[in-house]
Amino acid sequence: MSLKWLAMTGLAAAMMASAQEPVTVAVVGLEHGHAAGLFSHIAASKNVKLIAVVEPDKTLQQEYSDKYHVDPSLYVDSLDAMLTSKGKPQAVLIYTSPVRHRAVTEWAAKHGIDAMMEKPFATTLADAIAMRDVGRKYGTKVLVNYETTWYASNTAVLKDVADGKLGEVRKVVVHDGHNGPAEIHVQPEFLKWLTDPAKNGAGAMFDFGCYGADLMTVMMHGEVPISVTAVAQTNKPDEYPKVDDDATIIVRYPHTQLVLMPSWDWPIARKDMEVYGAKGYEIAVDPLTVTSRFSEKEKPATVEEPKLPLAYTDSLEYLAALERGEIKGDHDLSAADTNVVSMQILDAAKRSVQEGRTVKIAPVSR
Is 273 exposed, middle or buried (0-12, 13-18, 19+ CB in 10 A)? Predict the structure, then answer.
């Protein structure tokens, strides 16, 4: 998320939003489990309008109509059929497996349509670069949605880092995950690709390692790290025979270390970030809460961060504000440039595990 949101009050954003028509969107794919909460979210928003759902699987179509009240008249079997029968949306919301992100994004860009996809950005670095470049070529937005982008706690910590409140950042530790997709009973179509390394890139390492890589890249102003050292293992081979379910990734910068701990083997679900600087530390404990300490003499202080302006509360509101030109999203948590660097980290982590060594990273073409 760009820290520029501080220049916009929630009142100003609401006034601008109310004066414009909703942004038209189409959902592409229903195999990503996060789609389960999407349609009620769209229905509740005054700033987006759903015009089509692209999904060829008739079983999934029926399931989403029955469970999530998706209007059957919205369904089309292909992207081209959408243009013919439903019209051209301003943006597509991609809820396919990550391996399909590139194809949908390239199609959208060639038709002048923006794209926002669920994390992780890609399964390979080559696909990440290709998506960034096709957006540049056709002048379309290529965005990635992370749940943690909309946490007021993360926004506050990133701002304090940018303002120098913590001093030079020395170490960042990010824990993300839960006790496993099978264990929390995700949808069968979701579990199928999550546990397929070709469709997800890896297991927990990609599924949850991407959150911290994204946050750190913004914190470091897009700087590419020097190297990555990673280990990964499968603690539950009966459930996850083809992919890792637990990983630790150490990312080295000239004066800073990032430690990512993505896992499908946490006893309790978590998404938290610890930032240690020369002047003190801050911990984003949950979406709203930040604990900090800046002196040996003082006890840790815990505060609940205030609600963010509307455009920074969730992906749909952010996308609508971008489409209307109310905000700018260059180099933020959702941006393609940021996510290419994040993908460099994940790609190096995967190679580090495979090769049993530290992998050095070189910047890719900007």
Answer: buried
Is the distance from CB of 78 to CB of 57 less than 8 angstroms? no
Q: Are 72 and 65 in contact (CB under 8 A)?
A: yes
Q: Is 189 left (phi over 0), alpha (psi -120 to 50) or beta?
A: alpha
Distance CA 151, CA 155 (A): 6
Mean pLDDT of the region 198-214:
98
Give 194's strand partners: none
Identify the residue whose tokens are 């959408």. 82
**How many C-beta atoms lie closer than 10 Å to residue 197's C-beta?**
16
Does residue 182 surpass a pLDDT of 80? yes
pLDDT for residue 11 is more than 50: no
Q: Answer whether 135's CB lies under 8 Å from 110's CB.
A: no
Local confidence band at 4 (pLDDT 50, 70, 90 cut-offs): very low
146-165: pLDDT as tens digits? 999 999 999 999 999 999 99
Q: Cα(109)–Cα(142) distance, rounded to whole angstroms?
A: 9
Cα separation, 52 vs 44, whole angstroms: 17
Q: Report pLDDT digits (tens) over 61-118.
A: 999 999 999 999 999 999 999 999 999 999 999 999 999 999 999 999 999 999 999 9
pLDDT for res 5: 40
- Structural domains in the chain, CATH included, are 3-147 (3.40.50.720), 148-308+333-360 (3.30.360.10)
What is the Cα–Cα distance from 20 to 10, expressed in whole angstroms?
16
Inter-residue contact 264 to 181 (CB < 8 Å): yes
Residue whose entry in the numeric block shows the structure tokens 């297991």: 203
Q: Which amino acid is at 197?
A: P
Give kind and range of the element (H or E) at residue 27.
strand 23-28
